Amino acid sequence: MMEKNTPMIFERSKAGRKAYSLPESDIPTFNLADELPSHLNREEAARLPEVSELDLMRHYTALANKNFGLETGFYPLGSCTMKYNPKINEDIARFDGFANIHPLQPAKTAQGALQLMFELQEYLKEITGMDAVTLQSAAGAQGEWTALLIFKAFHQANGDGETRKKMLIPDSAHGTNPATAAICGFDIVEIKSNKNGTISVDALRDAVGPDTAGLMLTNPNTLGLFESDILEISQIVHDAGGLLYYDGANSNAILSKVTPGLMEFDAVHLNLHKTFSTPHGGGGPGSGPVGVKDFLKPFLPVPQVEKNGDIYSLNSDFPQSIGRVKGYYGNFGVNVRAYAYIRTMGPLGLKQVTEDAVLNANYLKVRLQDYFDTPYPQVCKHEFVLSGKRQKKQGASTRDMAKRLLDYGFYAPTVYFPLIVEESLMIEPTETESKETLDAFADAMIEIAQTVASEPEVITSAPHETSVRRLDETLAARKPKVTYAFGE
Ligand SMILES: *Cc1c(COP(=O)(O)O)cnc(C)c1O
Fold first, then answer.
1. Domain 354-475: which topology?
2. Is 140 in the pocket of ligand 1 (CB under 6 A)?
3. CA of 323 to the centre of ligand 1 (A)
4. Ligand 1 centre from 141 Cα, in Å?
C-alpha cells in the first residue's frame, strides 16, 4: 500500500545512514573554508537528510507514484494536446552526439545538429505552407511574441507602425493571444463569435480599418470548430492592410490536410511540445517555431540556420531582423524529437494522426452529447466543448465533476475555458487513445452525470480516492509553503 501522506525525506533521516559513499579521494585537497571570504562560510553543517539507499528509492518512487501523467491514464486536456509520445524519440534525443554538444562549439564541429535543424525547418515549412521557419522561440507564447514583433517590424518598415495599433482577437482565443498582443504594445479588439461558434464575419468587417495591425486566429478554433469562412476572413484582413497570424499550438487537426499557408495566413507558430512528440506540462523546455511568408523573412530572428553547398552555418547578417529572441538553442532536444517523429510518421502517418484525432473526438462527443448540454452540436475537429449547465442546476458544477473524474483514474478535461461557454468542459481525446479507453472515459462521464441527478453530494465532495482531497487552491497559490520547518 502506498502511504497516504508520504513523509518528507527529512523525516526519514537517521544520523549515520548513507545511500551512497564516495571512495577516498586520491587528489590532495585544500580546505575550501580557508579560500572563501568568511561571511560566505556556514556556521553549522547543512541539515541534509541521512537515509539508506532503500529508503531513498522508496521515498522517490512513492512521490513518483503520486504523479499523474500519460503513462498513468487518459488525459483529455482540450486545447493542450497531451498525447502519447513515442519513447524511441526520447532515446534519439539522448544520443551522445545530440545531448552533449555545447552552444559555443564552432559550427564546423556541430554540422549534424545544424543539418537536423535545417531539415526540420524545411519539413515545418511544408507542414505549415510557409516560406521560412525559425526554431528560436522556446514556447508557444514566445512564438506568438516573435511573430507579432515581426508584424510590428513589417508595419514600421512600411511607415505604418504608428497607425496600425489594433490586434483583432476572437472571444474564443487562447489566453496567450491577448497576453502576447498586449505585451507587444497592441490594443486588443475582441471579435465576437456567432451562434455557430465561429468568427462573425460581419463583426470582423466592422472592426477592420487603417488602424488594423492584424488578426490572431486558430483554425480549428478552441471550440474544435473549423472556420469555414477562413478565405473570406483572410481577405477582409488583408484588404484592410492587416496581417494574419495562426496559432498552431495544436495542429493535430490539420496535418497533411490543409496548411495555414493555404488559408492565407502570413505567420504561424507550432508547439513542437504538443503536436510533435515532446511531452509538455512540466514547465519546459519547449519549442515554438515560427513560420512566415516570404515578405516577412527579412524580419525573422537571428541567427538563422543556413545551408551553402554541403556546409551548414548560423547567419546573423539580416539588418531588418527583430534580433535574438533567445540566447541559444538549448531546447535542441525538442527539435530532435520533432525531427524523429516527422521522419518516422511521414506525410501519410501525419495524415492518419489528423484523421484519428478527429474521429476520436467525434466518437466521444456523440457518446456524451445526450448527457450534457452541447452548445455546438456540429461535427468537430480534434476537440469539442460540452457545458455542465444542466448539472449545475442539479447541484454540481463543472469543477465538481472534474474532481469526481479523478476518482475514476482519469485526468480532468480543461474546464471553464473557452470563456464563451458557461460551465465549459473542453475535451480532447487525441489520436493515440484506443476505443476501449474512450469508452471507459465516456462511461465514467455518463455515470457522473447520473450521480449528479441522484446524489449530487457524492460529486460535490469529490475526490474521495486520491491521496490529497480538495485543496484550497487560492490559498495554495497565494501562500504556498515551499520550505520545510525543522522540528514542527
Ligand atoms: C498551449 C497553447 C499556447 C501556448 O503555448 P506555450 O508553449 O504553453 O506557451 C498557445 N495557444 C494555444 C491554442 C495553446 O493550446
1. Aspartate Aminotransferase, domain 1 (3.90.1150)
2. yes
3. 23
4. 6
